[in-house]
Amino acid sequence: MDPKVILISIFLPFSLISTIVYVYVLAVILRNRELREKAFFMLNVAMGVADIGTIWSIYIFHRLRDFPFSNPFYLMFGDYGILAFMCTNGFGFFFNTQKYMLLIIGFNRFTAVIFPSVHTQAWTKKVCLYSILCIMAFNAAHAAATQIIGPSSFWYKSPELLTCKTKNEALYAVNLRYNAITPILVASLLLTIYGTVIISLCINRSKIEASNVSKLRAYKVEVKLTICVILHSLVLINSGIADAFNYVFGINIEFNKEVNDVMQDILCGCNPYLLLLFSTQLRKHVFYHRTCLVQNSGAGQSPMFTAVARMQPTVS
Fold first, then answer.
1. What is the crossing angle of helices 213-243 and 169-209, to 10°?
2. Which residues, other chains included, contact 207 with Cβ-Cβ below 8 Å and sequence gap of 6+?
3. What distance in Å separates the CA atoms of residue 173 and residue 177, rounded to the nearest whole number?
4. Euclidean distance between CA atoms 141 and 26, whole angstroms
5. Are 100 and 186 in contact (CB under 8 A)?
6. Could you give the angle at the alpha carbon of 85 between the alpha carbons of 81 and 87, nearest 5°?
7. Three-state SS annotation for 29-62
């Protein structure tokens, strides 16, 4: 059996389920004021949009295109139609937004751990909103400019298979390299950021453990969220390493495209599960109805537990 078919049959169900879970988690964040006011969660909302856009752009405009029966679908609006734009610059918009959002979330965790005294004041609603808008505006402008200078089109790379690229060959080569270099640069920066964060957490551990209960709880929250974003970023780092071997060092890894596709499946689909696993604050709201049922059924619950629950530290 074709390896591409095997990979799709394995990871397509994962991507479908992850998308449903992702949309539900994002809806919970947007619906809840407590979560909506936290920069970390709103940055992850933008991250979620980029993740979902990236993975389904890959499936619809890249993986499906490897099968000849899909050719009429891509050509229904003509060689230079909207689908050709989505295949190149539309995909590039989501792909690069995803990488920059991972970077900005890294900076958010960096300030939370290294500069906790100014973190809340630095990450206001406006700063969070402007950060998201700047990233999206930059990538949208890049996609629009590329489309204007060199319109995207479909053409046959073999008698049966279509490919999509910009009309301007030089511009296409530059964009291809840019899309390959971006994960490498972002992965390098994230390694530096999270390396510093981990060192800081390890150094301060003994001091925090000897301090009051409130600081210890806040420290544990930061550790959990740091683990969450590090695991998410590790997949990007692996993708960046593969791109570095392929595009920078000129070493063509066997099945490199398939490896990167699998990395994108995991990168785009793992975040909602990581957030639910490591964020008590989010998990409390996602499983709110179940919590209510448990509380209502426990008639003799001690008020002490309710008071402790209200004292749980939050994230920003």
1. 150
2. none
3. 6
4. 26
5. yes
6. 110
7. HHHCHHHHCCHHHHHHHHHHHHHHHHHHHHHHHH
> Which of helix, strand or coil describes residue 164?
strand
Q: Cα-flanking dihedrals φ and ψ of residue 160, to 5°? A: -120, -25
Give the DSSP per-residue string, 84-153.
Answer: HHIIIIIHHHHHHHHHHHHHHHHHHHHHHHH-HHHHHHHS-HHHHHHHHHHHHHHHHHHHHHHHHHS-EE
Beta strand 152-156 with 162-166 is: antiparallel
DSSP 8-state code for residue 314: -
List the one residue out of 40, 23, 220, 65 whose CA is nearest residue 119.
40
Determine how many CB atoms are found less than 10 A away from the CB of residue 134.
12
Residue of 49, 47, 30, 179 whose CA lies nearest to 109: 47
Tell whether the model's pLDDT for residue 299 goes beyond 60.
no
Q: What is the pLDDT of residues 76-106, one digit of tens each?
A: 888 888 999 999 899 999 989 999 999 999 9
Asked whether 200 and 175 are in contact (CB, 8 A), the reply is: no
| Helix H or strand E encompassing 166 | strand 162-166
What Cα–Cα distance (Å) separates residue 151 from each residue in 89, 143, 179, 261? 10, 10, 18, 25
Distances in whole angstroms, Cα of residue 305 to Cα of each of 122, 273, 295, 301: 33, 27, 11, 8
* Biggest distance spanned by C-alpha atoms of the chain: 73
Q: Is 162 helix (H, G, I), strand (E, B) or coil?
A: strand
**C-alpha R_g of the chain:** 22
Confidence of residue 18 (pLDDT cuts 50, 70, 90): very high
pLDDT tens digits for 225-262? 778 777 777 777 776 676 666 665 555 554 566 677 77
Q: Inform me whether the pLDDT recorded for 271 exceeds 80.
A: yes
